[in-house]
Amino acid sequence: MDDFAQHEPLFTFGVIADIQYADIDDGYNYSRSRRRYYRNSLQLLRNAQESWSESAVKPEFILQLGDIIDGFNKGRNASDRALDTVLREFSSSPVEVHHVWGNHEFYNFSRSALLSSKLNSTPHTDRSLRGARAGSDIYAYHFSPFPGFTFVVLDAYDVSLLGREDSSEQYRKAMHLIKQYNSNEDLNCPPEAGGLLRRFTMFNGGFSKEQLDWLDSVLASTDEKRERVTIVSHLPVHPHSTDPICLAWNFDELLAIIRSHSSVVCFMAGHDHDGGYCQDKCTGVHHLTLEGVIETPPDSNAFSTVSVYEDRMVLRGSGRITDRVFLFPGPQSDTDHRA
Asked: Is residue 338 included in any domain, yes or no?
């Protein structure tokens, strides 16, 4: 790893996922198999902020990969208070934060409320899907922190039962889709069929044709300009980068678009608190699923700092997160492996 860090990076950025803060005692996940440290997640965010602010090379921005506060806040009428608490920690340094939306954002807030909240980090330009297509409420945009590099933020709950009014056409279509595979009364329980079909649960979602077409158009432009593109989403889209229960509903359609373009180098996601990694054998694209803060014990950490160079990204993890080197894909990229 040290051999890759001898030269000054072009830029660096921080990454953190699944903070899920709530001012409540420790608890457990949905299946009661994992402990969750709701209050302590704020301290782990604090640790990350301190590390980034004390770095010799300060991050240009932070990627917050979704589930910033926990759904338990809603039932306690504490959603706004919890969000303000976490955002105060982020504002302790002047670094720009790009917020991704996960299922817990929609447990706490409506889609319209999120669009008008501080969790809407869409630049006020035509680089967003909403800016390009008037009337759209899809939260997807791209930004360029350095010449030749583009980051695309996707809305993994564009097609979902979450954040949509029960009476809406979007809700009806999402319900029709999930019911084709999941016959459980509680749609948060995965289908009995198992395998990749386990992804059809209520806490997941997918990408509409409108969003996929927009992404295809953005990547066509970055291909032409020979840029390096990193895509971020709350939900993973590669079956080898996560437990299938955490995959986006139509991960295969998203993967097909990535594989049809040459500019994508990395896909980053959260949601699976255990984390995961693979390199796509078709493209050499790196698929990273970041370990979640919420299930990280108080004596550890879960954040990373990524240094970007001309030909690679070097990720230095803290605590549970493993150091990695992401060599940018080339014509000889034909490996597919799990970490």
From this structure: no
Residue 19 lies in a domain: yes
In one-letter notation, the amino acid at residue 158 is: D
pLDDT on residue 6: 55
Per the CB < 8 A criterion, the answer to whether 191 and 182 are in contact is yes
Selection from 24, 67, 37 nearest residue 203 by Cα: 67
Residue 178 to residue 59: CA distance in whole angstroms: 40
Any domain includes 291: yes
pTM given for the model: 0.94
How far apart CA 207 and CA 101 sit, in angstroms, is 13
Domain residue limits at 247: 10-327
Beta sheet of 61-64, edge-to-edge order: 96-99, 61-64, 11-16, 302-308, 312-319, 324-327
What total of structural domains would you count in the chain? 1
Q: Using alpha carbons only, what angle is made at residue 216 by residues 212 and 220, rounded to the nearest 5 degrees?
A: 170
In a domain, 4, yes or no: no
Q: Which H or E run includes 326?
A: strand 324-327
Residue-wise pLDDT for 229-241, tens only, equals 999 999 999 999 9
